[in-house]
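Hi support team,

I submitted a single chain yesterday and got back a structure, but I'm not sure I'm reading the token output correctly. Could someone confirm the output below corresponds to the sequence I sent? I've pasted both exactly as they appear in my results page.

Thanks,
R.
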Amino acid sequence: MVALVFQNIGARVKEGEMVKIPKTSLILICSCMIMFLSGCRSKSETIAPLKNDSTVINHEEHSTDTEMMAQVNGKVINKSQVEHEKSRLIQQVGQQFTAEQLAQADTMLQNQALDNLIIKELLVQTIETKNITAEPATIDVQFNEIKNQFPSPEDYQNELQKSGMTEDDLRQEIASNIRIETLLEGLYTTLEPVTDKELQDYYQENIDMFKQPEQVRASHILVAFSEEDTPETKTQKRATIDALKKKIDEGADFATVAQENSDCPSKEKGGDLGFFDRERMVKPFADVAFALTPGQVSDIVETQFGYHIIKMVEKQEPRTVPLEEVSERLTGYIDNQRKQKIVQEYITKLRAEATIEYAHKQETAPVSETAPSSETAPVSDDTNPID
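Hi R., thanks for writing in. Yes, this is the structure output for that exact sequence:
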């Protein structure tokens, strides 16, 4: 279940600064379960909680951190909790969108944050009723895994403080997630393994999902800049990338220069970004990468992320990915979809049985109509099992 949750959140995100990778965050780590559960919505379901399980409570217009936003069977969810959860959502998606797009989606994010907390509270109340426990050894393992994700103990402590959590809070959150995982695992006992026929049928019925556009494999070196950089700083960084390009032109190994100088996480692999299509990268980068021939190194390319030197490694023509190449991932995908459907139905049942009261009316704009979009930093679509 742990693997399933993390796969559903971010395993499809590929390396490279154009496909942004959020910094390690305790908020993100501790809330991964809710991201899985929120993913169980049907596409027609709105951000706002269902009308037939809600009662609106009159409240003063001016809010405080302790203001009640909702009650779940009498348990209060306050404004501070909602804001904290909204911050986590912004950390999850914020690097994919501009500040303006996030501002336009503020109501959607607020409603999603509240709904996430309601779902989790329903599940927490259920595990308490069922007396589901978490083994201390399992908590220790996951706690250490999280702690070891940080570059240093100081980084871990800083993030802990920034997240407003103590180590006890973190352990309690881990224990809660483990207990919820145990609860959900119990729902899957009737699931049958995915059969070869189901794989074949799904592949044939959704053949367009397995069509890949032209792709290239490229490496790059990035000297990053930001909007806050002064013209003088940008000039210095341009001089840095020019000097690196000169070294490469004079015969220096591209991968070595990337490892020693690039500001992109891909430097650990010598700048290798793997295969990508045009839509995965920002346009100035993609235009140059796809115009190169294998082995060719570009001139300096400027994007909103900084200055790049790109080396095209290999080109792959458009193709339909054969079933045998994706069978393992497709099996996991179908199994995941089944589990999401089961959890969705279970949460719908919990909602119907619960008394959920809201302090304010919830807007009902569908996610698909309100979520910000980004042409500059697309990530893999979770609906496509080959990404």
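A quick pointer for reading it: Residues 56 and 361 are 6 Å apart (CA to CA). Let us know if anything else looks off.

Best,
Support desk
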